[in-house]
């Protein structure tokens, strides 16, 4: 019998730091734990928390089955206070105690800081070399511990006694600086020493003062760089010695001559590293009330990739391929060079005619330049910039070998929590592309792209991607922090900026926009569903409600949201390159649908928070908007205005069609639009996350799978066939001939269109939350015919859950792992039964129904048979009846209800193909249709259509 294991060391809120959790600013941090194994009948009935503060342990026993984000039981932590926490749980008996977790509060109020923001005088200006600041202090012999609390206006790299204070980069990251400036607590006990100590920090422009946004602005937050640092050293007698930035510090220029996130870094390695710090500093008045602690992980180097190829381009340039589109920088090892040699590294995501393709970067230079010292070996890499790239062009060095260069990958140090695998190699690669796209764009802010002169926190992108993000990586702390910025940037009237942090600040970028502003409601709700964090709803509720109230005011008495600054179904593949908002779906339909959806989310959030009046009010509002939507945009039969895939998908999935007959008609019409589109995707940002759910829930699973696995443009897998290693901004960022889309917005690393993999996890593999935080897991795989196996696993708040299935000789085996503390609702494929199971490993075998011969009643049935359709298209194209699969589908689209036996008549609309082509068509159709009259009489005149 499996024994009850000790719980894991308690997790503190959403922090994932290894070792002590420092700088916590929630004085009552919530605690979570997992239990690796337990007897089959185990159910947690109680838990005990032991908290040691100082030398006094205290224990609390709580009768509860909760183990995720449970309340702090004792008095709130005070500034700098440290506590050690461990837990044990009770089933039929008590477990062993967990390993302890140490949590330490940071500086909680402005008065906890004695340090002042300081800025160099006379150096470190907007277009001057990056400054380095120095503080010197004396320490006694009996050092017990040391903490550094630091942040900056700009970004900084700090060293204590010439050693980096930690492994983070681009600190303090990017927040809405005027409202929230993050600081970090560093354990520097091992870096300080008795006697003289030196604390230095190099300041870079970063997001504070560098070029930011495609409008070309600089110094958006301020024109001076500044450092705030407070070192607190405790000796063995308990005395705390405090040293902070003040007017006694000094500064000097460094060899970093230029630094900019978009344009890159220029470094003179000949700079005298022993030069004196001759410049004074001055204190900069700053409101310390905006300082906040960390919710999520900092930015770190997360990977290093070797070069896979070095070669010479047609123009004679040295090019390097790292095999993967990444975010970070190139590190070079230069050997035996002449002093003063200039080395330049340019970065880009793709090649154009064999050369580095810089046009997609727009005005971003993405160039790092070095002037070498001339040492036997020099390491060339920046520290105050980053780039999005797969390829690098290097000038100034000769005979570069692959082992002379590597790609340094950076990003917010998110823990990986979700995986997927299948028998379909292209689908697996697409999934990895989504993962890499998220890694590259989660650099402290969920950005749209990491390479061009933009890299902004577009709200619409993360709104559609948040379900995928929370499965793939532990994004809870990261997104909680970003939501705090969203609420801080939100206008008083409830309008949500299109980018957060908001550096555009134009009337257009602040006007309410459906799908973009809805990040205010959707992202908190997704976090609640995926993590069980009720507090995030409480913190964001006023923001959520304000957004819906703003839409209500804009919509007016009839509750239809018309006009305004809408992005619509952004980047629908039918939109021309120069007008990505000119989609097929009507923008008023999209806007009003989002109104209904967000109103319902606010009602549901109010219900969770026991806000009864709000729940009733917004629930009624949502119902009224749904009725208005149906009245304005839906015909009695179920047709939706603009007749696009996206409008049917959102109407079906967001409960905007309550009449059963209307839903049936809408589902059928959506399926026909997919058929008529030859199973190419026809949705943009809005429709892409829901199109496959809508098809499957309407009874058209096979069509959803064909849409997903399509490889022709536009489709999810088309970029994979073109060698993509991340998700593109456009379905056709690269055209089939290998040229780059002529549109101004042509990123090769966007995650928004990768939002479909949330459906892949939930319905192909079959793993999803049925209750918030995966307290109950939903297992409902729908195995596509084209796959022999698929699996997904996810580290839920309760531990790792997994679902896998494989086919073998007509039998499907389903294996499910449920973590302790959770349970699973299992729906076996093909209606083979249901089960409710507890923790542990479970296996079922299901006989796959034999697929009988499907009657070919209509032309629609011919298209639905993938093999027959492929054969028909081949013959139609070869015989000159159609130029492509797409034109063949369009040819048949008006005739889907015609009898399949009249297919030859249906397609001969203008001219006959050759007699051999007719005969081949008849041969293709005969096995499916039986006796085909036209096949027997190939010289019969067509009846016409």
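^ Assign residues to that structure.
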């Amino acid at each position: 019998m499996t024994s009850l294991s000790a719980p894991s060391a308690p997790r503190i809120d959403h922090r994932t730091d290894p070792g002590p959790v420092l700088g916590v600013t929630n004085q009552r941090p919530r605690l979570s734990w997992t239990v690796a194994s337990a007897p089959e009948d185990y159910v947690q009935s109680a838990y005990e928390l032991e908290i040691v503060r100082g030398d006094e342990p205290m224990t609390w026993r709580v009768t509860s089955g909760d183990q995720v984000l449970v309340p702090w039981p004792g008095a709130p932590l005070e500034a700098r206070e440290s506590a050690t926490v461990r837990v044990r749980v009770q089933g039929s008996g008590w477990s062993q105690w967990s390993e302890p977790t140490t949590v330490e509060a940071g500086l909680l109020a402005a008065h906890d800081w004695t340090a002042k923001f300081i800025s160099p005088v006379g150096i470190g200006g907007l277009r001057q070399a990056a400054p380095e600041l120095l503080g010197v202090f004396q320490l006694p012999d009996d050092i017990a511990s040391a903490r550094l609390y630091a942040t900056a206006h700009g970004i900084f790299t700090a060293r204590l006694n010439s050693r980096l204070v930690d492994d983070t980069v681009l600190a303090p990251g990017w927040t809405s600086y005027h409202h929230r400036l993050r600081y970090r607590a560093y354990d520097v006990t091992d870096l300080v020493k008795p006697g003289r100590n030196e604390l230095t920090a190099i300041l870079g422009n970063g997001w504070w003062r560098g070029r930011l946004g495609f409008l070309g602005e600089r110094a958006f937050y301020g024109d001076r760089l500044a450092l705030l640092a407070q070192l607190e050293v405790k000796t063995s007698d308990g005395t705390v010695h405090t040293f902070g930035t003040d007017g006694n510090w000094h500064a000097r220029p460094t060899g970093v001559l230029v630094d900019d996130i978009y344009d890159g870094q220029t470094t003179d390695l000949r700079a005298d590293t022993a030069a004196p710090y001759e410049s004074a500093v001055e204190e900069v008045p700053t409101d310390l009330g905006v300082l906040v602690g960390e919710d999520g992980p900092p930015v770190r180097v997360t990977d290093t990739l070797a070069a896979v190829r070095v070669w010479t381009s047609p123009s004679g340039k040295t090019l390097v391929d790292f095999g993967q589109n990444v975010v970070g920088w190139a590190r070079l090892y230069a050997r035996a060079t002449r002093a003063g040699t200039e080395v330049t590294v340019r970065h880009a995501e793709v090649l154009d005619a064999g050369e580095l393709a810089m046009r997609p970067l727009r005005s971003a230079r993405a160039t790092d330049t070095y002037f070498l010292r001339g040492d036997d070996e020099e390491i060339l890499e920046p520290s105050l910039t980053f780039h999005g790239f797969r390829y690098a062009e290097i000038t100034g060095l000769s005979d570069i070998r692959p082992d002379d260069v590597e790609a340094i990958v950076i990003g917010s140090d998110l823990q990986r929590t979700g995986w997927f695998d299948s028998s379909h190699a292209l689908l697996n690669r697409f999934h990895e592309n989504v993962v890499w796209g998220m890694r590259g764009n989660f650099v402290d802010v969920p950005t749209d792209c990491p390479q061009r002169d933009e890299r902004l926190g577009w709200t619409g992108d993360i709104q559609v991607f948040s379900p995928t993000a929370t499965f793939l990586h532990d994004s809870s702390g990261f997104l909680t922090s970003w939501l705090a910025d969203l609420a801080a940037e939100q206008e008083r009237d409830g309008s949500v900026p299109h980018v957060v942090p908001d550096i555009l600040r134009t009337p257009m970028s602040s006007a309410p926009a459906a799908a973009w502003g809805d990040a205010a409601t959707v992202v908190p709700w997704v976090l609640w569903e995926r993590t069980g964090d009720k507090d995030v709803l409480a913190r964001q509720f006023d923001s959520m409600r304000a957004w819906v109230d703003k839409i209500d005011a804009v919509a007016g008495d009839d509750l239809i949201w018309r006009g305004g600054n809408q992005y619509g179904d952004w980047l629908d593949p039918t939109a021309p390159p120069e007008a990505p908002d000119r989609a097929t779906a009507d923008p008023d339909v999209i806007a009003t649908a989002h109104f209904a959806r967000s109103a319902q989310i606010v009602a549901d959030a109010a219900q969770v928070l026991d806000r009864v009046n709000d729940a009733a009010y917004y629930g009624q509002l949502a119902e009224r908007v749904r009725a208005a939507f149906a009245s304005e945009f839906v015909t009695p039969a179920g047709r939706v205005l603009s007749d696009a895939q996206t409008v049917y998908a959102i109407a079906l999935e967001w409960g905007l069609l309550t009449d059963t007959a209307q839903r049936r008609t809408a589902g059928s019409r959506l399926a026909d639009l997919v058929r008529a589109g030859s199973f190419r995707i026809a949705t943009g940002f809005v429709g892409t996350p829901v199109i496959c759910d809508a098809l499957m829930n309407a009874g058209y699973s096979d069509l959803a799978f064909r849409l997903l696995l399509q490889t022709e443009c536009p489709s999810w897998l088309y970029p994979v066939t073109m060698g993509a290693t991340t998700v593109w901004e456009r379905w056709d960022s690269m055209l089939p001939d290998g040229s780059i889309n002529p549109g101004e917005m042509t990123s090769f690393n966007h995650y928004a269109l990768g939002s479909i993999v949330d459906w892949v996890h939930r319905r192909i593999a079959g793993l999803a939350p049925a209750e918030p935080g995966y307290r109950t897991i939903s297992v409902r795989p729908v195995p596509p015919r084209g796959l022999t196996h698929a699996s997904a696993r996810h580290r839920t708040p309760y531990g790792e859950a997994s679902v896998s299935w494989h086919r073998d000789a007509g039998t499907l085996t389903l294996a499910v792992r449920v973590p302790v503390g959770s349970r699973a609702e299992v729906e076996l494929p093909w209606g083979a039964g249901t089960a409710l199971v507890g923790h542990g490993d479970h296996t079922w075998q299901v006989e796959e129904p034999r697929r009988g011969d499907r009657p070919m009643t209509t032309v629609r049935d011919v298209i639905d048979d993938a093999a027959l359709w492929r054969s028909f298209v081949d013959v139609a194209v070869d015989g000159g009846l159609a130029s492509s699969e797409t034109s063949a589908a369009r040819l048949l689209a008006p005739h889907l209800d015609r009898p399949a036996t009249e297919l030859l008549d249906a397609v001969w609309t203008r001219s006959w193909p050759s007699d051999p082509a007719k005969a081949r068509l008849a041969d293709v159709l005969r096995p499916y249709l039986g006796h085909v009259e036209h096949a027997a009489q190939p010289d019969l005149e067509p009846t016409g259509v």
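Residues 931-945 have pLDDT under 50 and may be disordered.
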